[in-house]
Amino acid sequence: MLWLLAQIKPFVLTLLVGLITGMVFQFYQYSMALSSCSRWLLYMFDFLVWVLILLLVFALLLIINQGEIRIYIILALFGGILLYFQTIAPKTQPLIRRAAKTSVYGIRAMAGKAALPWRWLKKQALSWAEQMRKKMEGDEEEE
After folding, report:
1. Is 30 within 8 Å of 93 (Cβ atoms)?
2. How far apart are CA 25 and CA 52, in angstroms?
3. 79-116 pLDDT per residue, tens
4. d(Cα 84, Cα 25) in Å, to the nearest integer?
5. What is the DSSP letter of 88?
6. What number of other Cβ atoms are within 10 A of residue 102's Cβ?
7. Which of 12, 50, 64, 103 sits at a 20 to 30 Å CA gap from 114?
8. To 10 degrees, what angle do helices 71-83 and 2-35 make?
């Protein structure tokens, strides 16, 4: 009986890891739908999210069962993801969508503020280039 309990605990905890993974993936899907980023940036974000999910699952599996991968652990992980999308996702959709919208708008605002010095620098460089062009045209007319 103790052996069975030792197997059920990692299964249930890995099922919870699957639920968390499903939630992270849903948040990412909504965030990308709202962000309207370029195709190459989307590819980069896809890669980074999968690396993040892999690291998250790996770290949690290390904590749960010292990183042992067995077939029932893989089934529990995918079962948790499936369980999340079939039962919990419809109920958490408004909350996750609102969180994604807030984070996308927050990141846009921070990116806009971070871009202000670059915009000013670009404006100054174009102004300087225009002054130099006018000066060069004036020198050519004098000759």
Report:
1. no
2. 10
3. 999 999 999 999 999 999 999 999 989 888 887 777 77
4. 11
5. I
6. 10
7. 50
8. 50
